[in-house]
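Much of our argument rests on the idea that a fold can be written as discrete symbols. Part of our work consisted of pairing the sequence of a single chain with a tokenised description of its backbone. We regard such an encoding as a compact summary of how the chain folds. The amino acid sequence and the backbone structure tokens for this protein are reproduced below.
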Amino acid sequence: MKFVVSSSELLSHLQAISRAISSKSQLPVLDCFLFDLKGTTLSITASDLEVTMTTSMETDSNDGDGKVALPSKMLLEILKKLPEQPLTIDVSMSSLVVDIISEKGKYNFVAQAGEDYPVIPGIDEDKASKLQVPTSLLLTGITKTLFATADDELRPVMNGILFEFSPNNLTFVASDSHKLVRYQRLDARSDFEASFILPKKPAGLLKNVLPRESGDVVIEFDHKNAFFNLPNYKLVCRLVEGNYPTYNAVIPQGNPNKAIVDRVDLANTLSRVSIFSNQASNLVKLHLSNDEMVVSAQDIDFSLSGFEKLKCQYEGDEMEIGFKSVFLSDILENISSGDIIIELSDPSRAAIVLPFDKNEDEDELMLIMPMMINA
């Protein structure tokens, strides 16, 4: 098995899928990339058994098909240090000795047998659902929600993004119990109603490779696995088992108090004022009255305090509500609008954050739970 490939192109493909490899692999062969050459097409696979990612690229002057597992760390370190040039990779299929020949040198090591690499799971055609969505839409849905996923060993369903498909829209939901994001696309529909929970790791991998792609993503899933087929990549992952909480029940309706404020001004004010908050609680207070929002924080233990005033449009009763500044900052960073609407009912109930500038094909809602002020 012998082929010639561009060093920078090979590195780009390997880096895109390398995050699928676990730092604590269950099998030694999972520390490797699986190279599978058929004709001029080279398929490269990385896996941790839960998530498998495959990419394809074209090669030059190949000689013989074959399948072999090459050590990932060594390969990546070599390629990172090499300038752009054609590389000849020559593998003896009998001894598994690998020669990588560059313009000025040669690297030699032993690979593992390709047959030892775990087989990628297939889809259960009887229980499978399939649809096609634009890559940009899937990227936006993942980007909008990934930050709100949890790290909860006791409730693994919270550690992923809920995908809900219906004839009306495609919905992405994520929550860590402190904040919740619901992002709906009204321009993406399916002929069926179904849902699955995509784990955090494959969601992050998709977020990394989707900007490289254009066109559509074909999503297939059954009761165990999801398959994302992109033009140059394929991702297969095991889905999170269990039922996602009924998230709509926690979204308060008919909030009488509404503030409209510049998102960037509020984010910058929050970053300055939160320096003076208690390090343990990270509590900041928003005091809302006619056309003014006062953002304040204090740390009694160290005699620290700070506040800033912001102009805003406010309709409702004068009120003060507390939030963990880190969570509020996360929401402000991930909502796409110059101005935002903050809807409130009372200081003990969740606040809703909505974009003021709305796209007719999007329905974006973020929720943040309050903190007790007099604690």
